[in-house]
Amino acid sequence: MSVAKNGHPVKVHYTGKLEDGSVFDSSEGRDPLAFTLGQGQMIPGFEQAVLGMALGEVREASIPSKEAYGERSDELLVEVPIAQVPADINPEIGMQLAINDGDKSRPVVVTAVEPDKIVLDANHPLAGKDLTFQIELVEIG
Questions:
Q1: Which of 21, 36, 65, 92 has a CA between 20 and 30 Å from the CA of residue 79?
Q2: From CA 78, how far away is CA 81, in angstroms rounded?
């Protein structure tokens, strides 16, 4: 029986859950997720879980935050003087924005609004969270 190895293109169906059991993402009702094992296209813990799976196998994988989106970093909290916020933006806590980071755009979330500044969080929304995935390998090659 064929098993998934590094370099193999694979397709999987998955459901990702947080520690409280809430679903944060799923391929249910969509095409399976396609990627090549060992290419760094997925978080390390997810790739590790798929390695060695047989076609049709279903596996549950618990992935600690360090093997998922990493730990939260206070270095990714950015204070922006209110005078630098574009006039057409009325910042509110929880609002998602994008900031230019060199030649690319980075998503951020407004975490504080004060009279003289706002605080933006550039951490990945799942940083610092342990994840559980139910994974079904539906295609190899």
A1: 65
A2: 10
Distances (CA, A) of 44 to 29, 33, 110: 25, 15, 28
Structure tokens at 19: 């520690």
Single-letter code of the amino acid located at 95:
M
Query: Measured in whole angstroms, how far is the alpha carbon of residue 97 from the centre of its chain?
Result: 17
- Dihedral sign computed on CA atoms, order 89, 93, 98, 101: positive
In this prediction the pTM is: 0.82
Number of Cβ within a 10 Å radius of residue 32 = 14
- Asked if 98 and 109 touch (Cβ cutoff 8 Å), the reply is no
């003289």: which residue's tokens? 116
**SS3 per residue for the chain:** CCECCCCCEEEEEEEEECCCCCEEEECCCCCCEEEECCCCCCCHHHHHHHCCCECCCEEEEEECHHHCCCCCCHHHEEEEEHHHCCCCCCCCCCCEEEEEECCEEEEEEEEEECCCEEEEECCCCCCCCCEEEEEEEEEEC
Task: Please report the pLDDT score of residue 48 as a whole number.
Answer: 96
